[in-house]
Predict the 3D structure of the following.
Amino acid sequence: MPRDASKTKNRILDAAQTEILGKGFAQTSVDDIQQAAEISRGTFFYHFPTKDDLARALIERYAEADHALVEGFRERAERLATDPLQQALIFVALHEDLLEDVSPEEAGCLFASFSYEAGVLDPETEALIVGSIDHWRRVLGGKLAEAMERHPPVVPDADPHLLADMAYGILQGAFILRRSLDDPRLMARHIREFRRYLELLFGVVEATP
Amino acid sequence: MPRDASKTKNRILDAAQTEILGKGFAQTSVDDIQQAAEISRGTFFYHFPTKDDLARALIERYAEADHALVEGFRERAERLATDPLQQALIFVALHEDLLEDVSPEEAGCLFASFSYEAGVLDPETEALIVGSIDHWRRVLGGKLAEAMERHPPVVPDADPHLLADMAYGILQGAFILRRSLDDPRLMARHIREFRRYLELLFGVVEATP
DNA sequence: GATACTAAACTGACTGGTCAGTCTAAAAAC
DNA sequence: GTTTTTAGACTGACCAGTCAGTTTAGTATC
């Protein structure tokens, strides 16, 4: 009996996401989203009782996709190598591949966008973001911790989880830089540079002084 | 009541900055700012014809302060050491000191905040942000380039400007993480980790495999 | 007498949100 | 196999509130 509701709902979410990544949540009106999604104003509120509900749905979808992506990367890394250090390096390299050639519009993390607009989200959704970021950090941090057990780093007191945080930061910074800089490849190179650090830290590349 | 206009103007700017860093520009109303600054509505518009003018003034002030800070750090680094590598390391370490014990409210960069709210600023102000970010990158990148001439890095094709970008990212990422994480010292440790990378890259610390 | 401010009322555009009603497609009744 | 029913999907005009910005009339300070 019904028309395909989920299709429309996803169109709304898609439109909202690009709009919000560009302008921020508060500055994106329901009208903006409605026009971008090419649906009527009423349809928007049919699917999302309030604008805040949209925000929550967006974050939930984003968090799910993020989780799937990270787990996918982890699995691929574990399939491609048995050594945890190699797995960590592959995990990072997969991010590199993903971020080759990102347009300025695509460049951006919904989590970061909302983190600069505090107070919009209810505590549970806020917690979802924190959990999602944490998941990423734990996966990479965990692999690095395993790696350190087998391959002692060339400096004594290296902290695997601090390294993961650093990588997270490089990712976020790259998003911001991508918006003002022209080079579409820069993001991947930033991550590449981090990978090089790991290689150096674990003595994968020979130091040639 | 008082006659000192610049004092009031600065109070408005101060209030606006903390408010905007917390909630974002669009979500911060003139009333919010006016109440936080404890001035009347009329006074706000006496000093800033439009809300956008406030945004511009804020960015200009922030960019100036940023410039002064970076140049100050550069000068101190150049005073404390003659070797460009040591200067670069000190330059980074000074950031570390600055970011010891940052509260979640303070954690944030106005440039990043506005970068996720595109369309608010006029092109000139936008350019000011880009220029400001670029200045930071050029100072660190330049020092690292000098350093590489004197001290060849242990890996062959290290790019000093890419390294500076990475550092910028770590800084930005640390701001975002600081908002959801409890540890006030984390930011400094993130930067410290980057410094360690530089030391490793330039062979300042001995690799002990 | 000019500058710096206050207090409050006001305007108009725009915002999130509502609602009475229309459309669509499939199931039920004949 | 045509007609009727039904319920979810969708529409767009409309409402009430909020926002940036204006105006006005007045006070305090130098």
Observations:
- Residues 1-5, 8, 39-43, 46-47 of chain B lie near DNA strand C (CB under 10 Å from a C1').
- Residues 51-80 of chain B form the longest helix (30 residues).
- Chain B touches chain A through 55 residues (CB under 8 Å).
- The radius of gyration of chain B is 20 Å.
